[in-house]
Each structure stands twice: as structure tokens, then as C-alpha cells.
């Protein structure tokens, strides 16, 4: 397989309502990777260490949601992440795929799994909210969310450093290169920043707890034990609601399991999909 780069995997597609940028690599069962909602976030920034490995076995589709990356801008009142993901699959002619989502991306995939269950063969979340407050949640905004908001309102190396340090357990992952890339990406799209600001103080993705309980797709709920943005109790709340689910807690890990524990993340994702095989009827 050719070397996977940001440039040679970059593609665009127009769906019924959206102009979506994404990265594609590999062949096999479709595996959709969905990023979180931080400033400067994109499919490539969230998953570039994972794509090449997963593409050895799967058709990897790493999506920039509307309002992030190189996809079109959107205001909060029009944001529909799960609807955009459904349209994305339909535009590509894909009937069913495994979905992996980090933080906001995970919540978006949860919504898709109960809104359009026929599209989701497997559901994987990392650091995602359960949509309801837990007993271990802070009374106000978490440390990570406060840093995220500061970096949106004043994108700079200083605010981005505090934000990224809050995402990671091991600050060795907070490199000058990463900070510069995230600040550059955020400042390059002021329309994305304004779109995020239009929803300030509101949930990035609203979840209906009653409908979460209807999810039937095999579900893997990954969470960092040291996540300072979304407490790992959220994974336990989701596991109680989703019958066919299991929880995977990673110690010495913050909000980004896929970046802090890349090799383990890739192995676990593959093992989970392999252990819950897609039947011919499911794939049709």
C-alpha cells in the first residue's frame, strides 16, 4: 500500500445538503472516523496516526464534519452532525459502516446509531458524553471545556497549549508542531469559529437518553481514566443504557485515546470489529 499522507487521501463530496471534505484509504468494510469539536480539529488532526494502520484492513473514511476542517461552515441552528454522516454514506453508496467517534464525534455517532440504525454496523466512542450529568461531573464546566472555550474565543499558542494539555495525560504529546498546526487551522477558518460561537453555552450534540437505550449495534465505549474534559463515568452511564455494549477504560490517558495510546487503540478497534463480524445480510 502506498504511503498514506494528508494530501494523497484528501477528497471532497457533495451530499444533498453538505459539502464535505474527508480522507480515504484502504479497502474492506467501511470504517468512518469522526473527530471531536475542539478549535482547529479535523479528521486528519484527530486520526492521522491511526489511518494507515486501519487502512490495511478497512476502507477508512475520516470525515471533516460541517463546521470543522475543510468542510463547509455551519451555524449552530443548522448543525446536524448525524444527518451529515448519513448523507455522507448515502452519497458514497455505502449501505452500512462501522463508526468511530471521539468526544463530540462520538455523540454524533450515538445519535446516528439510534436515528439510522440500519447504517451502523459497529459503534465505537472515545471520551464521549452520555448526554446526562453524572454524579462525578463538575458542578460547572469541566477543566477541558473551559480551556476549549478560551481557545475558541482567543486562538493563540498560549490558549491552544492550555487546551491541548488538558486533552492529554502525557504532555509529551503537546508538541510545538501540534500547537502551531491547531492554531493555524483555527485561524484559517474564521467562519468555523463564528459557527461554533453561535452555539456557545449549548450542547454540541444533544442526546435523547430514551433513544440511546434503543441502540442495537455492537458498541465499544472507550474512555481515558484521566480524562479532564468528560469524566469516564459517562462510559458507564452509556453502558447501562446500551444493551450490546462493553466499556474499555485506559489508565494514564486523557481525552484522546487514539493519539495517546495509538497502537492499543488500533488493535482494540480491529479486535472489536473482528469479534462482531458483519454478516452478508447486514452488509447488503
Automatic annotation (TrEMBL):
Pfam families: Abhydrolase_6 (PF12697)
Record protein name field: Alpha/beta fold hydrolase
Alphabetized InterPro entries for the sequence: AB_hydrolase_1, AB_hydrolase_fold, Epox_hydrolase-like
Gene Ontology MF annotations: hydrolase activity
Keyword Protein biosynthesis: no
Domain AB hydrolase-1: start-end pairs: 31-267
The entry's keywords: Hydrolase
Amino acid at each position: 500500500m502506498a504511503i498514506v499522507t494528508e494530501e494523497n487521501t484528501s477528497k471532497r463530496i457533495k451530499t444533498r445538503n453538505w459539502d464535505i471534505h474527508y480522507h480515504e484509504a484502504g479497502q474492506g468494510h467501511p470504517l468512518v472516523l469522526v473527530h471531536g469539536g475542539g478549535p482547529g480539529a479535523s479528521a486528519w488532526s484527530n486520526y492521522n496516526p491511526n489511518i494507515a494502520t486501519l487502512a490495511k484492513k478497512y476502507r477508512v473514511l475520516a470525515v471533516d464534519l460541517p463546521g470543522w476542517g475543510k468542510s463547509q461552515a455551519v451555524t449552530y441552528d443548522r448543525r446536524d452532525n448525524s444527518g451529515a454522516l448519513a448523507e455522507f454514506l448515502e452519497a458514497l453508496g455505502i449501505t452500512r459502516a462501522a463508526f468511530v467517534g471521539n468526544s463530540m464525534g462520538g455523540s454524533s455517532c450515538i445519535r446516528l446509531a439510534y436515528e439510522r440504525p440500519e447504517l451502523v454496523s459497529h459503534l465505537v466512542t472515545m471520551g464521549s458524553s452520555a448526554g446526562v450529568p453524572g454524579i462525578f461531573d463538575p458542578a460547572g464546566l469541566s477543566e477541558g471545556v473551559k480551556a476549549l472555550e478560551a481557545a475558541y474565543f482567543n486562538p493563540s499558542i498560549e490558549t491552544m497549549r492550555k487546551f491541548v494539555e488538558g486533552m492529554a495525560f502525557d504532555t509529551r504529546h503537546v508538541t510545538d508542531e501540534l500547537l502551531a498546526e491547531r492554531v493555524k487551522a483555527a485561524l484559517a477558518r474564521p467562519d468555523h469559529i463564528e459557527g461554533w460561537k453561535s452555539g456557545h453555552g449549548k450542547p454540541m450534540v444533544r442526546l435523547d437518553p430514551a433513544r440511546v437505550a434503543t441502540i442495537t449495534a455492537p458498541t465499544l465505549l472507550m474512555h481515558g481514566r484521566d480524562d479532564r474534559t468528560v469524566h469516564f463515568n459517562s462510559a458507564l452511564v452509556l453502558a447501562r443504557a446500551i444493551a450490546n455494549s462493553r466499556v474499555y477504560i485506559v489508565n494514564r490517558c486523557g481525552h484522546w485515546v487514539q493519539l495517546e495510546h495509538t497502537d492499543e487503540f488500533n488493535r482494540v478497534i480491529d479486535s472489536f470489529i473482528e469479534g462482531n463480524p458483519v454478516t452478508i445480510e447486514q452488509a447488503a
